[in-house]
Fold this protein.
Amino acid sequence: MLSDAAVVARARCGDVAEVARRELAEEQAALRRVATLVAGGVPAAEVFAAVAREAGLLLGVQAVHIGRYDRDDSVVAVATWGRTAERVPVLANVLRDLGVRSTVCAPIVVDERLWGVLCAWSKEDMPLPVDIKSKLAAFTELVAPAISSVQAQAEVGRLVDEHAALRRVATLVARESAPAEVFAAVTEEVGRLLRLDDTKMIRYEPDGTATVVASWGYLDTAIAVGRVRHAVATPVVVEGRLWGAMIASSRRAPPLPASTESCMGEFTELVATAISNTQARSDLAASRARIVAATDEERRRVVRDLHDGAQQRLVHTVITLKLARRALQGKKDSGPALVSEALDHAQRATVELRELVHGILPAVLTQGGLRAGVDGLASRMAVPVDNRVSVGRLPAAVEATAYFVVAEALTNVAKHARAGRASVAARVEDGTLRVRVRDDGVGGARPDGSGLLGLADRLAGLDGQLRVDSPADGGTLVTAAIPLPRPVGSARFATTPRDRPPPRRGSAPR
């Protein structure tokens, strides 16, 4: 039979076991309620609030705090239960001011990264239970998946929104909308997507200033430096040249997300494309206008030369022949002289017509090719010209364009370069005729001069390109690249007999 002491001890042990079972059941019930919320996909804020409340009630503490570590080394409260602070820059000072005697914190690790902390605070003199750390850890293990899920959903949502915004802007660019419309759309899309206070698009001017070409948000047109807490700028580069920038500003305390700059970069690339397309259309329109003007001027020159020269002589010839016919019919002595005069005028008209045709396309080029044409140009130069043309006959349009490139370049040498000598080279590389005209003159040639600009337009008609390198006191190099047309129905240029494979033994050549 047990003694009274043994009975009391057994009763006490039973009470302790019952208390332990009850606490375990309460803990499991609290964890189960939180797990149910996590599994149900409820918003993270609701999960945080439930964790703080369940932990506080279960542990019997005065306050529970769930904080997220911010990039400025502060802790931002995401959920609290009891008395606490919303933002804790210096946690120790706040705890001391609140009269907290005991604190236990458990880290919240999300995707192997320290995300935040779960803290339980007590003002009681009695220390917190020894197992409180494990109990807090159990709650943090439930909080981490909820945070990870919410972050993943937020990232997916952000990407979907970003792609939709990019698609809207890309549609404007593809429709060749006006740059001002694209700028306005980009600033608004970026501002709304990143939840900014202000976005601006600026263009750098040649005098070192910047012009705001589009703005969205709540700040003034000028950048309000004193009112901005955070700002990110992304350059706009058009064809390798810094054109301007996009500036994103925020007046709120939290820093802008780390992805802000990369997101803005996606939009500035579309802006650069829109600007480049607009510039290309403008250049094309200007080029066409110059070609039309040059063609009209050339036509007027030909008409004027014909009217003032050969046409007048042919009219005089006809009149003189009519007078000669009358004289011969009347058996007058002036007949032979009039015939001779008419013949002289006809011969002069023939010479003038030949000279006029030569001014359009010289016979030496049409008969002898580019090398002969360059020889003809070099023979009229006051400085020696080294002819290094190593090509045969070329398509007529290519040959004529290359000739005019050399003619314009050598004309500039004679008029402006003050050079001692010049050289002309031409060769075919990878299906492209490359022409180079170099001189050792004073340099400083301007590619936007009327002559060179006209050549660039003519080359553009053949998908060719013109480049002018003319540093001061460094001479001038004019380079032209003209693609050669491929034979119809052929994927490669025509081969010479040397390029063709030899016939197989025992078979006749094809």
